[in-house]
């Protein structure tokens, strides 16, 4: 595989890496020369992802576990240090999206969304920042959403968690930019992932979902995982060394629309 080298030699942790945006970004990062630690809860899909990347002659190891559990985060950080000796980039991508009206939303579902979507990023940042400080810097990219600021009925916990990610991102950027650690967020709109295909299935098929996408996303289609991956790549690479505390919208103009 020809490498362009924008991440040559960089050690990268990606959570939620077995499918969707995580896997698409992992493939792109490997093309750019990164050494990867893939983290995911789904063992079979994670194994398939690692095999796929190994077949592409890339350096890749994995940690299977729930990112809401401190042990998983600890093991991911340890694996990166043990295998590559450093951590240059973290892409906090793992997330879930159960829905329901606020008056009927179970407390345990709220807690689960916050644990996976937001607390896991706090824990990862808490553990990787000391390692990045040792080496003089690094880049953290957090997966938020256009729904951090624009929402619709039923996305109670999801919207709150994604808004919280933006706050966390800005605080880390302000606290550590002078020490060489950058922290930014990605805010996608509709993306062609397994999660959104399930939304289409629940609505009765993609034909039912497409009018909603066209109404909400002026681009008129879902973004591909690779299109989102290129935005993550920019923030992870040295091309964005003056960018920190930013939220990069990859939403086909959804956030600009009324």
TrEMBL record:
Name the UniProt key words of this record, in alphabetical order: Oxidoreductase, Plasmid
PROSITE patterns from the xrefs? Answer: ADH_SHORT
Q: State the superkingdom.
A: Bacteria
Question: What name has this protein been given in UniProt?
Answer: SDR family oxidoreductase
Q: Which PANTHER family match?
A: DIHYDROANTICAPSIN 7-DEHYDROGENASE
In the record, biological process GO terms are: bile acid metabolic process
Q: Which family does it belong to?
A: Belongs to the short-chain dehydrogenases/reductases (SDR) family.
Tell me the GO molecular function terms.
oxidoreductase activity
What organism does this protein naturally occur in? Paenibacillus rhizovicinus
A Pfam family matched by this chain, by name?
Answer: adh_short_C2
């Amino acid at each position: 595989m020809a490498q362009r080298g924008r991440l040559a030699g960089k050690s990268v942790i990606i959570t939620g890496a077995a499918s969707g945006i995580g896997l698409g970004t992992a493939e792109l990062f490997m093309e750019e020369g990164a050494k990867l630690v893939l983290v995911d809860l789904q063992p079979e899909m994670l194994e398939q992802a690692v095999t796929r990347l190994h077949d592409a002659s890339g350096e890749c190891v994995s940690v299977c576990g729930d990112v809401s559990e401190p042990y998983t985060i600890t093991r991911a950080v340890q694996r990166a240090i043990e295998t590559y000796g450093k951590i240059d980039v973290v892409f906090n991508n793992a997330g879930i999206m159960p829905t329901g009206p606020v008056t009927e939303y179970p407390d345990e579902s709220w807690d689960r969304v916050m644990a996976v979507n937001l607390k896991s990023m706090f824990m990862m940042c808490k553990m990787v920042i000391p390692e990045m400080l040792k080496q003089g810097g690094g880049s953290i990219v957090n997966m938020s959403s256009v729904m951090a600021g624009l929402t619709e009925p039923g996305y109670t916990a999801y919207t709150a968690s994604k808004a919280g990610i933006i706050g966390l991102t800005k605080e880390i950027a302000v606290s550590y930019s002078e020490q060489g650690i950058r922290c930014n967020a990605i805010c996608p709109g509709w993306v062609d992932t397994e999660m959104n295909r399930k939304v289409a299935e629940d609505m009765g098929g993609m034909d039912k979902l497409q009018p909603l996408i066209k109404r909400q996303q002026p681009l008129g289609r879902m973004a591909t995982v690779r299109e989102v991956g290129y935005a993550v790549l920019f923030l992870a690479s040295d091309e964005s060394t003056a960018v920190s505390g930013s939220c990069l919208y990859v939403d086909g103009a959804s956030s600009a629309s009324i």
